[in-house]
Write a structure and sequence with these properties.
The protein has a domain of 83 residues. The protein is flat. With 142 residues, it is an all-alpha fold. The relative contact order is 0.02. It is built from 1 helix and no strands.
């Protein structure tokens, strides 16, 4: 019995070690595949960050160009407006002050005539025809 038990225990030990080795090998494969995917993801993240920085820089540059462009155009418009405004102010100050007009009030207020209101009439209806007695003829009484 001892030899049978020994054989059985060695077989169990061998199968267990074989299974453990296969699990370890499988986990190593899984670990390698996870590392590969992580490396790819890291590359994509780096690329995305670079692209984002480039895009922000480009937008900032465009915003500066727009600000400069608007400043130039507004400057010309502002100059024209300020020239017109100064001309109007100069024209207004050089004119002689006009006397304020005197308010004219009527001598007597005119009373308004009351308008005669038409009496509201009842709606016209046809007079009812007088009822005449219609003789009822009984066929039994004849």
């Amino acid at each position: 019995m001892k030899s049978a038990a020994k054989k059985l225990s060695t077989e169990i030990a061998e199968t267990l070690t074989g299974k453990i080795e296969s699990v370890v090998a499988g986990s190593k494969k899984i670990k390698k595949s996870i590392e590969k995917v992580a490396a790819k993801l890291a590359k994509k993240v780096v690329k995305f960050e670079k692209d984002t920085l480039k895009l922000k820089a480009k937008e900032a540059k465009n915003a500066e160009k727009k600000a400069k462009g608007k400043g130039k155009k507004e400057g010309k418009k502002d100059k024209k407006k300020s020239e017109k405004l100064t001309a109007l102010v100069a024209a207004a100050t050089s004119k002689v002050a006009v006397a304020t007009p005197v308010k004219v009030t009527p001598a007597k207020p005119v009373p308004a005539k009351p308008v005669a209101a038409k009496p509201v009439s009842a709606p016209k209806t046809k007079p009812a025809a007088p009822e005449t007695a219609i003789p009822v003829i009984d066929s039994n009484n004849q």
